[in-house]
Amino acid sequence: MINSMTGYGSATGECDGVTYVVEIRTVNNRFFKTRIKLPEPVVFLEEDIEGVLRQQLSRGMVNYILHIKNVSSDVFFDIDEKALQSYVERLGGIARGVDVNCSIDIGNLLGLPEVFSPRVPDEAKAGRVRETVLNTTIQALSALKQMREAEGVVLAEDLARHCNQIEDKLGLVRQQSKSFLTEYAERLKKRIGELLGAGNVVLDEEIVAREVAVFAERSDISEEIVRLQSHIEQFKDTCEGKGGSERAGNQLGRRLDFISQEMLREANTIASKACDAKTIHLVVDIKCLIDRIKEQVQNVE
User: Fold this and answer.
1) pTM metric for this prediction
2) Which of 26, 140, 202, 286 is the most exposed place for a label (fewest CB within 10 A)?
3) CA quadruple 288, 292, 293, 294: dihedral positive or negative?
């Protein structure tokens, strides 16, 4: 079955008294792209997180955010007290030298170079943090995939409904194609009879038959109808995970996009060959339905 590229999942994990909250949002995108936002103390995990996301997802724009909660001041951050004291003394000396009475905001001093910096965890702690964050990420991905699967069911039903409507319209086109040659021959005979009647000229049936044969060859849409029907069946099989779609793995969205393009190609050919208003109107309806399919397919993983 197909999956949507739109979804949301979150999960929470804890390690050494610190709470890690992972949020993952995905939207449709032609390719796989990630936007990972991590707190500075755990930026060393970005590559590992990227790898997990690529293993679990194949298409879409992935927005990943990691929040850290319940963090004590000495867990992930260091304050260089000597550097801070040096700044205070130098700034105080400058103020006294120019006879300026001012107060020093310690909070602002924390942004100065080498005063406030993330604490690099030792190997053991880094290993525990990595395991916790990656496990939490997998849990969030599981929730995300459940939502994408649920939306995929709705997408599949909508796509199947459009395909069935196209098949109904195509059946009417097939029926119309069987009768419009006869109608064309009758119209041709009538028109020629009107033009030649005043001169008492006898209508040559062989000439009419030859003209109808040329018209029939030029306007024959039987092959296009067969190919379009084949594409529809292949599209429905792909949505259901049958046949060649098994080899496509998680790239069902790209496969469906390609098939829908071929469906539109055949519909355009039928429209260019159609010579009667009924068929043209039916093909316009078919092309509208294919356009809806193409829009929906853009959200399939």
Assistant:
1) 0.70
2) 202
3) positive
Instruction: Give the strands of the sheet with 18-27, arranged side by side.
Output: 7-15, 18-27, 60-69, 32-37
DSSP for 51-71 reads: HHHHHH--SEEEEEEEEEES-
* Structure confidence by residue, pLDDT tens digits, 38-91: 987 888 999 999 999 999 998 899 999 999 887 654 555 666 667 667 767 777
Residue 291 lies in a domain: yes
Can you tell me the distance from the alpha carbon of 31 to that of 18, in angstroms, rounded to the nearest whole number? 35
Tell me the average pLDDT of the chain: 81
pLDDT interval class at 180 (50, 70, 90)? low
On whether residue 246 sits in a domain, the answer given is: yes
What is the pLDDT, as a whole number, of residue 61? Answer: 95
Location of structure tokens 């399919």: 293
Give the tokens for residue 259: 């098939």
- Separation between Cα atoms, residue 271 and residue 264, nearest integer Å: 10
C-alpha 50/C-alpha 271 separation (Å) is: 47
Write out pLDDT tens, residues 16-42. 888 999 999 999 998 899 999 998 788
For residue 179, tell me if it sits in a domain: yes
- Determine how β-strand 18-27 pairs with β-strand 7-15: antiparallel
Residue 125 CA: distances (Å) to CA of 77, 209, 254? 14, 89, 42
Q: Other CB atoms closer than 10 Å to residue 298's CB: what's the count?
A: 14
Tell me the H-state helices in the chain.
46-56, 81-97, 106-109, 123-197, 205-219, 222-239, 252-273, 277-297
Query: Into how many domains does the chain fold?
Result: 3
Q: Are residues 178 and 162 in the same domain?
A: yes
Percent of the chain with pLDDT over 90: 47
The three-state secondary structure class of 240 is: coil
